[in-house]
Structure formats: C-alpha cells, structure tokens
Write a structure and sequence with these properties.
With about 80 residues, the protein is α+β, with helices and mostly antiparallel strands. The chain has helices spanning about 10-15, 20-35, and strands spanning about 5, 45, 55-60, 60-70, 70-80.
Length: about 80
C-alpha cells in the first residue's frame, strides 16, 4: 500500500451503522484508493475544513479524511445529504 489507513472512533461507528453490503463496498473502495501512489488524484479538498481535509465519493456516501503524510485518517463516513452539515 502506498498509504496507511487509520479510522477514528467516529468513523468506525459510522461504518458499523451502515448496511453490511454498503459498508463492505466503502471499505473496498477506501483500500483501493489507499493503494494508489497519489490519493489526491481521486479526491477533492473540503472547503471550510482544516488544511489537508479531503473526501472520497463512494456512491451516495462521502468518506471524509485527513491526509497526514502517508496516513489516510478517516474521520467520517456519511450519506451525501448529511456529510457537510
């Protein structure tokens, strides 16, 4: 892997609250993105958040993360309608 994954307790709680099939799809996509050489090529920077905060799009869900060197720290996994509130 080009990047190491880290999940906050809040992100773990978000994933546990999803349907099994959706959670599996999201985790599969996150690990695929983590294996890329440049994860920023498939993500967007979040406006109004701290420096280094970005998001992935996985269907109707958004994976919000902070990039710290070679560590992707996922801090939230939410439906797109709730992700930016």
């Amino acid at each position: 892997m080009a990047y190491t994954l880290s999940f906050t307790e809040e992100a773990k709680k978000d994933i546990r609250g999803l349907e099994h099939i959706i959670a599996k799809l999201i985790y599969k996509k996150i690990t695929a993105y983590a294996s890329l050489d440049n994860v920023r090529s498939v993500s967007k920077k979040l406006v109004g958040y701290d420096e280094g905060d970005c998001r992935f799009r996985v269907g109707d869900y958004r994976v919000l993360y902070t990039l710290k060197g070679k560590v992707i720290e996922v801090f939230a996994v939410e439906n797109r309608k709730d992700a930016y509130r």
